[in-house]
Amino acid sequence: MSNTCPPKKLLFAITGASGMLFAVSFLEALVGRGLVVHGICSPSGRKVLAKEQGRTPEELPTVERWFDPADLAAPPASGSSDYHAMAVLPCTMGSLAAIAGGLSINLIHRAADVMLKERRTLVLAVRETPLNRTHLANMLAAHDAGAVICPPMPSFYLRPATLEEAARTYAWRLADQLGVEIPGRRRWDGE
To answer: Beta-strand (E) ranges in 34-190?
Structure first.
């Protein structure tokens, strides 16, 4: 019998909101962390990723397997899946609404519902501004169901000099929420 623990499995979802720089930065931060990362990308997420980053999901680092968002029979749709956490980055207000309402319109929504019902970590990086009352109510409903609402907001006290550095500060924060240690992660030191 082996005393080694299997690597943690993380599910990563991309929806069609702006902010793909944050998704790329987060996945780059996971390189070499010993995680198994699987992904789901919505059709609109695919379009925005191409427009903002000139990439397809399959060209992103770290993700070993991509699932079709229409495949509700894929492993992430089941409570027996062994993902320890899920992040939706960026998370559209439509995806937030579906998740908050318990609607399994696609695999992203169903997988998020599985994370909530199994009491596993679900982080929603909601991306919209300004926010209306419905957005706020949906964030509260998702929070009350167990999700972590973590909009992509960089840590400016770390004085990032570029957009990429700013995105990296958010990647570190998101990793913290998912229980993933990132070497070199800078923290507030009170100075």
So the answer is: 36-41, 63-67, 85-91, 121-126, 148-149
E strand map for 45-139: 63-67, 85-91, 121-126
**Which domains, and CATH codes, for the chain?**
9-178 (3.40.50.1950)
pLDDT at 113 over 60: yes
Secondary structure element (H or E) that encloses residue 13, with its range: strand 9-14
| Helices 93-100, 133-145: crossing angle, 10 deg rounding | 50
Cα–Cα distance measured from residue 93 to residue 136, given in angstroms and rounded to the nearest whole number: 10
Phi-psi region of 54 (alpha: psi -120 to 50; beta: other; left: phi over 0): left
**Tens of pLDDT, residues 38-61:** 999 999 999 999 999 999 999 999
Rounded CA separation 38/40 (Å): 7
CA angle 6, 9, 14 (to 5 degrees): 165
Beta-carbon contacts of residue 67 (< 8 Å; ≥ 6 apart) = 38, 39, 40, 74, 75, 76, 107
